[in-house]
Structures are given as C-alpha cells and as structure tokens.
Design goal:
Elements: H1 9-20, E1 29-33, E2 45-51, E3 69-75, E4 78-84, H2 95-108, E5 112-121, E6 131-138, H3 140-143, H4 170-182, E7 189-196, H5 205-213, E8 218-220, H6 224-232, E9 236-246, H7 259-268, H8 270-285
Parallel strand pairs: 1-4, 1-5, 5-9, 6-7, 7-8
Antiparallel strand pairs: 2-3, 3-4, 5-8, 6-9
Helix pairs in contact: 1-2, 2-6, 4-8
Bound molecules: hypoxanthine.
Length: 287
C-alpha cells in the first residue's frame, strides 16, 4: 500500500496546535511570500513570529541568511498567516515536504491561500516587472511520476484522486484585476500558464522552446506543489508570478538567466506587490 507518510494528520496537527497556542489571531487567509514579497510580512501589525526551526516537525531551512519563518498578524486589520521564505525542491526536499506548511495552515483554519513566486517570462509579450496571475499550471514533475500527493492518502485532508481543473479561483482573479485597476498597475497584469521545473539550473534554449510549444507563459521552481496540496484540502487559491527576467529562447542571445537579476527585479517591484497583495486581501476579507 505504499510507505506510510511521515507527515501524518497527527503530525501536522501538532505543528498547527503549536501555532494556535501561541497567537491570538485566527487567520482565514494564508500567504506564501515568494521572491519580491518577502517584505510583506514586515507590514503586519501585532505580529507573532515563528522561525521554522522552532515549529515542531517543520523541515530545516537550508538557505543561511534567508528568512524562514511563519508570521501571523494583521494586514490592515485582516488576520493573515504568512510564510516568509518557502521550501524548494532544489534544496533537496521531497515535494510533499515543500508543501507541508500548507497543510499546517489548513489545520490552523486557513480557507484561502495566496501563493506568489518569481518566474521567467516565456511568453514573448511579457515584460520584466509584469505580474502574471496564474490561470493554470503544468505539473511537469507529475509527468515523471512525482507529486506532493504521492504516497498514502489521508481522507481527512482530501480525496485520493483530486481534480485540478479550476484550481485558480476565477472570482479571485477578477477581484485582483479590479484591485490592479484601482491602484493603477493594470498595465502590468497578465494571466497565464505557469510551469514548475525542479531547478536549480535555469533552462536550456531547447527546453524553453519545448515549454513554449506546450503553452507555458512563465517558468519557475515553486508554487505547484503548494497549490496542489491546497486544492487537495479544499482551499481556494489565488496565485501570481512576478516576471523577474526574460527567458532566453535565442541561441545567439548574449545574456543569461541569473539569480541577481531575479532579486533585483523583485526588489524594484516590491512596493507595488505589497500594495497589490494588501488590497487583494482587504477585498477578499470584505466579501
Ligand atoms: N526560470 C526558472 N525559474 C525562475 C526563473 C527562470 O527564468 N526566473 C525566476 N525563477
């Protein structure tokens, strides 16, 4: 019947209980802060901060000097729980381990999750600095037999065979587009298909051309495991990519993808992103 899953319902419950016993907030909205959104957690008021190494059963963070903590507090009066820093598959974690904090959020009472990331823009119409709302994803690692939902299934989280169409809530995308108009950033808004590759290497030209043929608009190294686990346990999902660099699909191009450019774009765009997410959260809460 497959190996027993090390993160059983009871193990996840222990982590969520730890958080609930140490904060008075009861957030319904969870946020995974990708590159460019790390500063959002700093905006929370009346916050309780939990470094990942203090939360029972959490994977150990492998990136030194990189914020790895749960921050629970008020974003303009709306209680939220933020992951400041996430777990990536390229750090050596299994996909289910990368996504385990989503289940912890679920058992703390989260019903809606906002997942963010930095991604390369593959669609030639995209510009660096754009915000791509995810309308769908391609779980490339699923093609090779891996999934965050692999292994024994616990029905208390969700069904053995969950549907994945309509994973990216239509209504929240509409709401986000309205927010973007209201704050004057609608010229940056795109809507497209995200693919996750395992990384850590960036893609070859041939790989990117292949992905383009498959209908991919943006390429990254995260988000899909968390979204799959969130959908499995019945959460409503909103996700977006900050387009931090242009994917290079030309053999004669001189430039190359690099982490510095990703971080630089993320830093440049962080004020817009913080405001965008803050307003999306406010409108979600007032619905
Ligand atoms: N490829 C994969 N992941 C990324 C990229 C990219 O070009 N940019 C930011 N994350």
């Amino acid at each position: 019947p497959g190996d027993p899953h090390p993160y059983t319902y009871e193990v996840i419950e222990q982590s969520s209980r730890f958080l609930l016993e140490r904060t008075k907030h009861r957030p319904r909205i969870g946020i995974i802060c990708g590159s460019g959104l790390g500063g959002l957690a700093e905006l929370l008021k009346d916050k309780d901060v939990f470094p990942y190494e203090e939360i029972p059963n959490f994977p150990a963070s492998t990136v030194p000097g990189h914020a790895g903590r749960m921050v629970i507090g008020l974003l303009e009066d709306v209680p939220v729980i933020c992951m400041q820093g996430r777990f990536h598959c390229y750090e050596g974690y299994a996909l289910w381990k990368c996504a385990m904090p989503v289940r912890v959020m679920k058992l703390t009472g989260v019903t809606h999750i906002i997942v963010t990331n930095a991604a390369g823009g593959l669609n030639p119409a995209y510009n660096v600095g754009d915000i791509m709302l995810l309308k769908d994803h391609i779980n490339m690692q699923g093609f090779a037999g891996d999934s965050p939902l692999k292994g024994r299934n616990d029905e208390r989280f969700g069904p053995r065979f969950p549907a994945m169409n309509n994973s990216y809530d239509q209504r929240l995308r509409q709401l986000a587009k309205q927010v973007a108009k209201d704050i004057g950033i609608d010229q940056y808004i795109r809507e497209g298909v995200y693919v996750m590759l395992g990384g850590p290497a960036y893609e070859t030209v041939a790989e990117l051309r292949l992905l383009r043929m498959l209908g991919v608009d943006a390429v990254g190294m995260s988000t899909v495991p968390e979204v799959m686990v969130a959908r499995h346990c019945g959460m409503t999902v909103f996700a977006f990519s900050l387009i931090t660099n242009e994917c290079i699909t030309d053999y004669d191009a001189q430039g190359e993808a690099n982490h510095e450019e990703v971080i630089e774009t993320a830093n440049k765009r962080q004020n817009d992103l913080n405001l965008f997410v803050t307003r999306v959260v406010s409108s979600m809460a007032s619905e």
